[in-house]
Amino acid sequence: MLEASHLKKSFGELKAVEDVSISAGPGEIVGLLGPNGAGKTTTVSMIAGLTVPDAGEVLVNGAPPRKQQIGLAPQDLALYEELPARENLRLFGALYGLGGRALDEAVKGALELVGLAGRAGGRVSHYSGGMKRRLNLAAALLHDPQVLLLDEPTVGVDPQSRNAIFENLLALKARGKSLIYTTHYMEEAERLCDRLTIVDQGKVMASGAPDELYRLLPAANLVSIDLETPERPLDLGELSGKEGVRTAERVNGVLKVGVTDLARDVPGVLGWLTAHGHSCRHIASERASLESVFLMLTGRSLRDQ
Ligand SMILES: Nc1ncnc2c1ncn2[C@@H]1O[C@H](COP(=O)(O)OP(=O)(O)OP(=O)(O)O)[C@@H](O)[C@H]1O
Ligand SMILES: [Mg+2]
Questions:
Q1: Which end of the chain has less Cβ packing within 10 Å, N or C?
Q2: Which ligand is in closest contact with the Cα of 43?
Q3: Which domain holds residue 243?
């Protein structure tokens, strides 16, 4: 179990991290999300013990972490381009004090996990971007750390390698590792993470399970309803006043109702329509995205960064 609390770091006048807390339990993938310059790399670097925090505390299982307990796959690839993949891993393993059979096995296991066992003799300079990312990940987990810090592990990789990396991470999760997954891709975070911590300008804006974050939005789901008789009058004010209904409007004849919880709130909306003599031709619903959560919290879009 990783617990980092109230981390702070300035570089001269620049407050890179002002107050960031993040935790990850065994078998949990926690997303650290934020735009460029939000302080994500500085945060993981403090957790990894590479940057000394100005304030705050990092604990693994209740005590200051030992080097062996943490693995970091850095945002800037840390690989020796001229060496074969296997030799890169042997070097990283040796840095963690591995040798002999233990090193051989760790290298073999890590190569298999990231799906590079068949290309282990090839020079890194001949690897594709996706293969390099996967090797970078392998280097971070050679010493079998309890906590894995992944700083933008999918930047610059093709969709196939990205899926392979996701599978690798899910395999590590299944082994009970605690993972911190840094990204500015909301879709990735949504797909992969059990919990998320959203940071902006060095501060935590929100954290929780995706469902909890969606509930921060005025309406977590937008339901579009095509009515059989769209010309028939409808009291939008009354509908908006119903419990669980956050917004109600008509757009091009389609009724759009924003609700907090689909299962709980939609039956009431449909019942209300029936009671007012409306029947529905078609219903569709769309879930709000984490992107909209970020927009609401910061007033800015992640994608504009
Ligand atoms: N060693 C350093 N010296 C001075 N400023 C730094 C240093 N490291 C980071 N910063 C600054 O701290 C802020 C946070 O940077 P950081 O790399 O942590 O952000 P990030 O969220 O990882 O961004 P990105 O998505 O671009 O990787 C930035 O303004 C950056 O310029
Ligand atoms: Mg970064």
A1: C
A2: 1
A3: 221-287
Per-residue pLDDT at 304 exceeds 60: no
Q: Considering only 75-89, 186-200, 290-304, which range has the smallest mean pLDDT?
A: 290-304
pTM here is 0.82
Task: Specify if 90 maps to a domain.
Answer: yes
Closest C-alpha residue for ligand 1 atom 27: 36
Task: Find out whether the beta carbon of 75 lies less than 6 Å from any atom of ligand 1.
Answer: yes
143 plus 261 within the same structural domain:
no
How remote is the C-alpha of 170 from its chain's centroid? 13
Q: How far is the CA of 292 from the centre of ligand 1 (A)?
A: 24
Last residue of a domain, one of 149, 179, 214: 214
224 C-alpha vs ligand 1 centroid, how far in Å? 42
Distance 39 CA to ligand 1 centre (A): 6
Taking only the tens place, the pLDDT of each residue in 98-125 is 999 999 999 999 999 888 999 999 999 9
Which SS3 state, helix, strand or coil, does residue 5 take?
A: strand
**Whole-angstrom Cα distance, residue 287 to residue 190?**
12
Contact 85, 134 (CB under 8 A): no
pLDDT tens, residue by residue, 47-69: 999 999 999 999 999 999 998 99
